[in-house]
Amino acid sequence: MKAITKATHLRVDSMVDLIQQQDPKMQQLFSMALNIFASPGARKVAPEEKQEQLRKAIEASVEPRS
Amino acid sequence: MIIKQLRICDFLTYPGEQVFDFPNTDDSNLIIVLGPGNSGKTTLIRALKFLLYGKFDSVKPGEAHTLINNHTKAAAKPGEIQSGWVEATIEHNEEELCLRRTVRAAMIRRDVWAAGDIVFEQVIRDHRRTHFVPDHQGVFQNNIRTLVPETLFDAFYFQGEPLDGKLLGGVTAIRHSLSAFLHEDQWEEAEQEAESIRSGYVSEIHRLNAGNEKYQELLRNQESWKHLLKNQQNTLANNHEELKRVQAEYVATKNMLDELVKGTDISALSRQLTVRQHDLDDAQGKRQRCEEAICRLVNESLGIPFLLSAMPVAARILIQLKEQNVIPADLSERFVDRVIEQDCCVCGTKHTAQTRAHWLKYKEKTLSVDLNRGLSDLLSLTHNTGTHSFLRKSRDLQVELGKFRNLRGQHIVKCQELQALIKSIEDQLAKYPVEEIRKLGVHLSTLSDQREKLGRDVGECDVSIKGLTAKVAELNKQVDKARPKGAAANQQGKLERLRDRAEQLRDLIAQTRQFLHGLFHQILKASVSQDYDQVATDGSKAVVDYETLMPAIERDGARSKNLGGGMSQLLALAYVVALSKLRRELHQQMQQLQIGLGKIDDQSFILDSPFDKADPNYSKAIARFLLGSARQTVISMLPQQWNLVRDIFEKHAIRIYGLRLYSPPERVKHVNRDDFSFPVGNTHVDLLAELPANETAYTKLIIIK
Which of B19, B145, B201, B566 could tie B499 with a disulfide, CB 3.0–4.6 Å? Predict the structure, then answer.
């Protein structure tokens, strides 16, 4: 993809900073939660299925590291 | 998505096949299409809409044949099928795709056509032949609608048109597209689901401990105190956010105020004006009191001041009369006659008809022996040397009157000086937009109050949170102590960890949503201001509403979304570009976090007369802004608009097209040829050509540069 010629002055680095303050498992859980609910195909998945996926993700995030 | 080539064949005003190449390099991506009125500039946008969505707004169902060029149709014979089409080669994700939409119709008899049908196909060209793959499953159509939603296209090109330029409708649509890109509503759903799962774990913990009342009681307490703590933390976060916003607004308002007064202390001038006006009121009051004192003295003097001032004249007249041996009996009459003859009355003022009438009345009605005697006394008084009380009183009165007259004189001078000073201050203030400054001053003061109040609220929240945190920590200890032992304890511990994790996730999503909202506002505001404020000639500023993230223009404290003269176009473009950059940046950040938000596309501007109704300053600003703000910029314009922005665009344009209008002589003779002439380089390009009589007008594309 070619870059547009004007420089971009916008910065949203702090968003990453905010998430990276969390422990790694929490970061992973956050990403999974958003991928379950806020990804392009999420609307096509049934709400119960999404809730179940999130529950499993939460449970996996408190399991001791294998 | 960018368009690499647009082909139009036998479609509306375009007869035969006409090819628009839209070259795009790292150095330039600007394409200009010059065209006089009614030459087919807007038809290009409508043809694009027909290609992308199969729709053409002004064509009713069953009349698709009207899209086919009239020349083509005129050459047809009954039973023949004619067609017209629009084709575009688009680049997306560094891959090319060529799509064509064709309208076909059969001629039944002269001027009567069958309804016609429309076909959407992929076009594949190799070195030998061209293949057409019909989009039976709607795959390409679906892809196109995902890339450029029809509502967005319509909003951008058509909804804003009647108001002010053609971009306003696009702002809301673009804002919604960001919202859809971020799936804002689904973030909220994720937060709610995390809370729902957390509540489920809480219920399970309660169920597990159904028999243990003390422990249950502690858990309920723990839950309710944590809830209180959470609420307070939310309040604190909101207050912090609001404080940040108020602080930013305070700084912005202060800067605006500083900019307006440019180093001059307007408030000091205003204060000075108030003080001087007060001084003037005071001096005028004192002068008034002097006048009153003089009046009082005169009133109480029983006419002495009159006599006093009359004395020298009266004495002179009386001496003259005496020298002429005038006897006292007719002294008064002659005295009055002499007085009337003089230019001035005995009081020293110029005679008027009225004063003369008074003296005559006096002579006729009140002349008597007593008065004659009185006048004789007056005569002798003038020779008296100060023993008479009349003269003493006159002297005292004169002193007193003199004192007040002096004072009155001083106050008059002071009033004049103060009036001159006040005028000078008012002149200085007149150089500044005082009313705007006053409003900003009031706003600044309100913001300052809000800031103080929020500061106090934050402090109170902090104290409250410390207390609540201590309470929750204490309850946690008690819960740990009272926790059941053995296997139940293990299950309990696991459920609590899960509950805490769900709670942590819920809070993180909420925090991130709030954080992103604040960040968007900050970034959009900064970006829009950067592009708009410096250009605005009327002191207006671009603002972005904190709640809706929608842009507006603020002038004299009032907000408007729709201002004329090109301001709205500039604001809309700046906002659209800022959103696009924000979206791109955010996408990259999300990728770092391994969150997929969908694909990011190249920004492409295809603008139909964006300088319409814009004044020269904003037209130039919009032109400068458009350079390099998108991956592709295609702009069509009229001669007047081209003349305004030619110096900016001509050297940057990679290609300049002209839409030459071929028109019959009966129409050509009524037009102004200047409306068809475009200066390019060192020549003028004439975009009007005359057809033989009674031919139908059409448009031909020519390459100018």
Answer: B201
